[in-house]
Amino acid sequence: MRFRACIALLLFLSACASSTPPPSVRGTRNPRLANLQRAARLPWTDGGRCVVREASQPWPVLVEQCYRALDHDRIEFHDTTGRCSVASAGAGAMGIGLCVLVAPEIVVGAVIVLGVVVAAVAIKEELDAYELRHAYPEEAGTSRGAKVSSREAEAQRKPKLKPEPAGQDWQPPVPPVPVDRTGRASCEPVPVPHAGEDDPHNECADKFPPNRYPGMDVVIGGVRFDALQVGVRVLWEIKTHRFDTYNDFIRRQEIAKELEQIEREQDAAAACGYGYVIGVSTHAHKDALLRANRFLNVVVTGCKR
């Protein structure tokens, strides 16, 4: 009870003191971003997952929730101002550490980190994703059903000579991507909203690899992919066709079309140093692709339509 009362007191004191934000986050409009940037300077034992999960909370709440995930072997707290002595009476060293961390401005010498701090993996990925979304706001969209750019309106104005393929088959023009100094498309991943309104396909792309950017495709090397797998440099093309229901003629047509797309995506992935996997719903679809090219990396996802 004394410990919880101490925590509540620390949060209250920090809230009263937080009217003036620290210089490092002044002018940062997004509190979540400010929390991630602040947390990136500390060592974490869980790869920063707790911080990413709690980043939308006020900083004192994040500190309380994630304090135990800090690498305490590499960090020392010093009550250089004496204002945290009240915490030490109820919670010992942990109370001092919490009090020091929730302060709106960290006094020089109050937090000492041993060794070089490299931003935790989960925090870095979140910051990178924010940077990319900020660099290309027109691709972020405001909601799942919103019109994310004028590209779709342009596509609708074009005369339709034949029926549009449904959902996953429709490949819109790729969005603008950064280029390197040679003028070639950059290998930096750019998250963009999933193409089309094929919910079963998009759900499979998010959950099966699983997708590093849920709800988003990713553009790499100027080519659009359904997913970038979490934790590894592997790009995915997801197919959820009901391939088993097609007749032989349609199957041949479908495989020929897919091989053109796969070749383009494979080349872009390889040029940027990424692996490439095709996920299909059925063994019949996998077998048909491997008969056409036995060197493909094809996985049966079992995703249903």
TrEMBL record:
Q: Where are the transmembrane segments?
A: 95-123
Entry's Pfam families?
DUF6310 (PF19829)
Coiled-coil ranges from the UniProt annotation = none
Domain DUF6310: start-end pairs: 180-303
UniProtKB keywords: Membrane, Signal, Transmembrane, Transmembrane helix
Return the annotated region ranges for Disordered.
Answer: 141-187
Under InterPro entries, the record lists: DUF6310 (IPR046277)
- The residues the entry assigns to the signal sequence are 1-17
Ranges of Basic and acidic residues composition bias in the record = 149-163
Protein name in UniProt? DUF6310 domain-containing protein
Which species is this record about? Corallococcus carmarthensis
